[in-house]
Amino acid sequence: MKNIRFSTALLCLFMLGSTAFAGVKVKWSAPLPEGQFLAKILGEDRNGIFALSSSKGDYSINGYDEKSLKPLASNLIVLADQANVKIELEDVFFMTDKIIAFASGFDKNSSQSVTYAFTYNTKTGKISGKPVLISEIEVDNKRRQGNFGFVPSKNGKFMLVHHFAYSKKFDKLQLTFQVYYAELEFVKEVTRDYELNDKGWPTSSVSNFTIDDEGNVFYFQNRSSENEDGGGSYLISHLFLEDYELREALIEFEDNQGMGGKLGLTGFHIVAQNGSVYLAGYYLTKSGGLLKYLAISGTFYSKVDIATNEIVAQSVTKFDDDLKRDILTSRQMEKGREIPATFFVKDILVDKMGEMVIVSESYTVSVYESKGVQIITHTFGSLIVSKIGADGNTLWTRAVPKTQIYSEKRPVIGVGGAGAYAFISFPTSRDMTIYFSYVLGIGKDDVSIIYNENPKNFALPNDDLKPIANMKKAIPALITINDKGEMKKTRADAVLSAGVILRPKIHLQVSEDEVIVCSSLKKVNKIGRLTFD
Q1: CB-CB contact of 29 with 530 (8 Å)
Q2: What is the rounded distance in angstroms from the CA atom of residue 217 to the CA atom of residue 424?
Q3: Phi, psi (degrees; rounded to nearest 5) at 396
Q4: Cα three-residue angle 253-241-45, rounded to 5 degrees
Q5: 416-437: per-residue pLDDT in tens?
Q6: Residue environment code for 292-327, b if the CB has 16+ CB neighbours within 10 A, otherwise e
Q7: What gap in Å lies between CA 294 and CA 286, rounded to an integer?
Q8: Distance (Å, rounded) from C-alpha 352 to C-alpha 527?
């Protein structure tokens, strides 16, 4: 199975309220059948909660009663070869009243990358109808068959299928967009070509594909040049459903905030809703003395009106020393260090008034080799949470200090070099990092974050916090930040009622105050409904 990409749903949430702090309560299901491992929470409707599970390399769609969480059914996903093409599961999505699994492969007879869609009924969990061929994209050969990506709209009515491949025949990178209704009815298709420079790299990089509730497609384009003054030039590209003519909103900014160094954007993310497209990320600088390193000095925000393609709000806000103290050590502060550029925006939440909450997490992976063994260390570090007003001004920014570390050993075949290691985001039962990262939710008034914490850290100041590596001793910490930016940390003891350990990588917020979560301990796996109150 290919890597399944996970991201927390972008939610339209109300951020206005009082200064009260939220708590949590959790209701857990009975343990899953032995050997079944939850891989993704798909969604919820009147027929129940649906999840993707794995067992010995096979994948199933599981259903649960929405109130009692009692298991209803488990149906194996069977992917038979289609028209002599061997296909592999790419991803599975909940689309309004159905579940759609996408699988892709290479057709050697026609030299095409192909994608099939399998639809499952949420009443029975069983496949409905025959597989549908939705993509046939001509490529050079199997080695250059490229990659598919799948992005549903927030309302579940549209699905964006994008494909990126290098064509030696045309000496270009080709990006193909296809839009479908949830019923798999074809809507539009367009292909964009990207020239290569003398070094064989594309003149522009594209990322952050998204589709809004009207079927309009957006993506981020980073130009390969910088302004002479150290500023940057970026494009948010729009493909409107009406005609699919390309429209581009040029975003430019200069070093006029007194932060110094070359500028750029890093860890950015975009979201389209409320008739606008929002871009948020971090202001990138170079810091340090003789040993230069990339750092972030503040938040960057831009809001573009979809109808007029005009920038209606934009800001760069410098981090203050209080935030730095919560992330850096005292020694680093004394040396004037900046926050390292290891933070990546993982969630953007926008309410109907246009106010935004941005959550990012620091993540690093290091590889060390000695005597034929690789030691791979994953570090999930602190969080940065910012709230930005509808006018683009930052209302508050808070740090959530944490350090979660896991090291694994792998044998290395061959001599010399550190070897290559690709971080796999799809969770498996043997991946201990499933217990790291965080669960994000919104209570009635607060931004709420839960993560697994070292129990000693509840009694220690931020300067003395200890990392957590042994998940058997983990205690879930609840961070609540109210509308004024006031933050509180408590133990989320309600989460412990299952006798298992929370797995933050797999969760889905289904309403303003409810999140579907899961947990594991050895061979015991459970699904739960977490409520903020």
Answers
A1: no
A2: 27
A3: -165, 155
A4: 100
A5: 333 333 333 456 767 788 899 9
A6: eebbbbbbbbbbbebeeeebebebbbebeeebbbbb
A7: 5
A8: 31
